Amino acid sequence: MTDLNKPKNIYHFLYKVLIFDAIMRITPPLSLFAVSIVAVAAYKASPKRAKKKIKSAVFDIRKNLSDWISPETTPEEDTSEKDPDDYVFNEDGDLEQEVKRNMERNDMDDKSYPPEAV
Hints:
Elements: H1 5-26, H2 28-45, H3 48-69, H4 75-78, H5 94-111
Helix pairs in contact: 1-2
């Protein structure tokens, strides 16, 4: 004979999974907790070679997150803009030389086209 309790157990399990899924979708911190549990389970079940790669990836992610949350340079140091009125023209400067090269390149492009008939 077949066991009649088996479908009830499966439906009960699927009902729990449905409730768990709804809770995970509603509350992101719980879903982060679930992802961390899955990651730990995968780490525990993986071979030693894969554990080294997982560990190095976790350290890289942790380092990138800490750099993103609290960078070494503060925003006050990065916003040291010069006053635009303090600009001094220097013909041999990098900016001026780049502009000069771009102008020469544009002039060369213009000369390759035939002149317009007037």
